[in-house]
Amino acid sequence: MRSFLKFTLASIVGVLLSSLIMFFIMLAVVGAIVSSTKKEVSLKSNSILQLQFDKEIPDRSSENPFENFDFANFKPNITIGLTDILKNIRHAKTDANIRGIYLDLSIIPAGFGAIEEIRNALIDFKTSKKFIISYADYYSHGSYYLASVADSVFLNPQGALAFIGLRSEQLFFKGALEKLDMEPQIIRHGKYKSAIEPLTNDKMSDANREQLTTLLSNFWNHILDGVSEKRKVDKTELNRLADGLVIRNAQLAYEHKLIDGVRFKDEVLALLTKLSGAESEKKLEFVTLSKYHKVPKSKSGYSKNKIALVYASGEIGMGLGDNETIGSEGLSKAIRDARQDSSIKAIVLRINSPGGSALASDIIWRELSLAAKAKPLIVSMGSVAASGGYYIAAAADTIVADATTITGSIGVFGVLLNTKNFLNKKLGITTDVAKTNTHSDIGSIYRPLLPEEREVIQQEVENIYDVFISRVADGRKLTKTAVDSIGQGRVWSATDAKRIGLVDIIGGLDKAIEIAAAKAHLKDYRVVDLPKLDDPLTLLMNDFSAKIKASVISSELGSEKAIYYNLKNTLSRQGILARMPGEINIY
């Protein structure tokens, strides 16, 4: 009895101590967050806006405290969304305290769609006659494409510039599943619907290789067009440099006119001192994007007319969703609110999604179709708006996409994982079932599908595909036969998508808002963001453990975290999906 009481008391003390420690950790986190987010920044004259894109760029800045906190290093880590990046560059253009922009670049962990919009914003910034200087120790294809708009592009003497052409590498898990005695049971429609290939193949199918090669070629040609225009180097010569692996070091990049000079950072700082009019290098005034975001801006006049900017980012599923996923219920409510609000005169839906649940996509489509009947509905596509991401776009009056948006992928597939042999042969686990009817356990992961069950699911996949192409045909004013011919799960670049009728206009988010205003006959308006974000305290309580886990994974795995999430997401996909082929990572 004494021993029992001793251990019980020890357990209670342990729990109390752990709770106390967690409480103080929470206080420290909240204090660090509050001090980093509430403090306004005053800007000095002759300041230089320093743009460094070394973190992922979401479409929307998050008010989630854990979104911006590095638990691995226990410090605030502000992430500015694309829409706010564009606003800040636009504001810097007319800000008398900003003399120019310093692009401090290397690898940019963002899709080419986001890079394209930032690049266009910088091109517009240059009309102010303020300078843009770019410097890096290493330029990736994405960062160099962005840097090419600068007045001067510099590279560390021992640095490098990637100029070898684009590639997309994919992981295949067929061999691993075979070793584990797991059987992926696939039902699909669309010869290009290759989202399931990582489970069934050990290499790309011919159809998948064809679509990816076409996609990469379109992206590469678009990049070459931009670089050729800004650097005054012929496209043929640029391709020769890439094919011959000519750009092997910084000096060769300079000799072939891809950069303006080979310099150390202190030399670039000396140039910035001169350009900004600072008295000395010590007097240089840099303001980072995260700080500039907190500089008080002069507010424009209040307007009762509003355009709702509705964000749809991440994989599509049922439920409410969050900042990183699209929930059918959460997004539908935001669209419904915008439709029913008489002060909102138009809706812009910003899509950055590879798709997901077919049912969830149709639920969202229904709400969008109702909104399109009530007021102008414009879609702005980000880096990717494919499969279910395109499904929900089909209801729009006008679809606007960046030239490098990945879109299309009109197709459907189903995945059921049979783990019977894995459990039995590898772990010695057997299963049994009691049921009232013959197929009560259809879809169970503990047995293979019966032929008649597979046929039923195949019919359902065909039905969903038929509904999908019907939605697109109605929205795009095409025949179902025409949509089927460009569907089949094939992904397209926005440039090709415009040619075949899936996209109306090549442009960014600003262009979509401009079109929405014109269709609603608005000259005076303000943009409001939806869905409304939860207050920071609620997010703090809801996301504590999840964000700690995500932060640690990111810290430990770095850029390789994509492999972890790719495998996790691939194995977790069950049921009938309208989703893009795997993860298309372009380097």
Protein architecture, described:
The chain is an alpha/beta fold and 587 residues long. The chain has two domains: 42-163 and 247-292, 2-enoyl-CoA Hydratase, Chain A, domain 1 (Alpha-Beta Complex); 306-579, 2-enoyl-CoA Hydratase, Chain A, domain 1. Helix content is 45%, strand content 20%. It is built from 21 helices and 23 strands. The strands form five sheets. Strands 10, 14, 16, 17, 18, 20, 21 and 22 form an eight-stranded mixed β-sheet that branches. It has a six-stranded parallel β-sheet with strand order 8-6-5-4-1-9, with helices on both faces. Strand 12 and strand 13 form a beta hairpin. The mean pLDDT is 87.
Q: Report the radius of gyration as a whole number of Å.
A: 26 Å
Structural class: alpha/beta
Strand-residue fraction? 15-25%
Number of individual domains: 2
The biggest beta sheet is recorded as: 8 strands, mixed
Oligomer: single chain
Distance between the termini: 66 Å
Judging from the principal axes of the Cα atoms, what is the shape?
globular
Annotated CATH homologous superfamily of the largest domain: 2-enoyl-CoA Hydratase, Chain A, domain 1
Q: How would you state the average pLDDT, rounded?
A: 87
CATH architecture of the largest domain: Alpha-Beta Complex
Structure annotation, total helices: 21
Q: Segments where pLDDT lies below 50 for 5+ residues? A: none
The CATH topology of the largest domain comes to 2-enoyl-CoA Hydratase, Chain A, domain 1
Which CATH class of the largest domain applies here? Alpha Beta
- Structure summary, number of beta strands: 23
Which percent bin holds the helix content? Answer: 40-55%
